[in-house]
Amino acid sequence: MKKQIYFLLFLFILPATLAVHAQPRVLVVYYSQTGNTKAMAEAVARGAKPATVILKTVSEATVADVLAADAIIVGSPVHNANVAPEVQAFINRWPFEGSPLKGKIGAAFVTGGGISAGEELVQVNILHSMLVFGMVVVGGPEWSGAFGASAITAEPPFGSKTVDDRFLKKAEALGKRVAEITARMKR
Description:
By secondary structure, the protein is α/β, with parallel strands linked by helices. The protein has one domain (23-186): Rossmann fold, CATH 3.40.50. Helices cover 45% and strands 20% of the residues. The protein has six helices and seven strands, in the order αβαβαββαβαββα. The protein has helices spanning 2-22, 36-48, 63-68, 85-92, 119-132, 165-186; strands at residues 25-30, 52-57, 71-79, 82-83, 105-112, 136-137, 149-152. Strands 1, 2, 3, 4, 5, 6 and 7 form a seven-stranded mixed beta sheet that branches. The longest helix is centred in the last third of the chain and has 22 residues, at 165-186. It is globular, with a radius of gyration of 18 Å.
């Protein structure tokens, strides 16, 4: 009788436990002044489901969040063709000694005021930082988002009070791609 109980536990509980741990843990972290980068972050997080998604601002995210994540997707507004200082300060807090981020998946998304206002430079700067930490970087699923996802928020025809749906769809696609690749690498 005891052996049968253990066997049943093995058959039903162990697979359920493994399934919970099999879900990739994706940290989506961002800085937003006007709400545009926040809107992109929320779209990235939607796309990353059914992974376990943690959505935080750079001021809320901790080193423990970074270490616990299987994938880290960082978002920044463009500040004079540079990463926002708050985002760079967040990255500067990541632990380097012993390479604890080596092999984690990394990706980037940004918002910029205009076309060619520095959005690709900022994406690449974030990805460069990730590469220095030994992370495996992932771009968007289409050639038009090779470095991740970006949104133009002030230059016509895209300038409005909200992020254009076309950019939100690219952000969702980035989240989905990161979650899928992370799940494959976790197996």
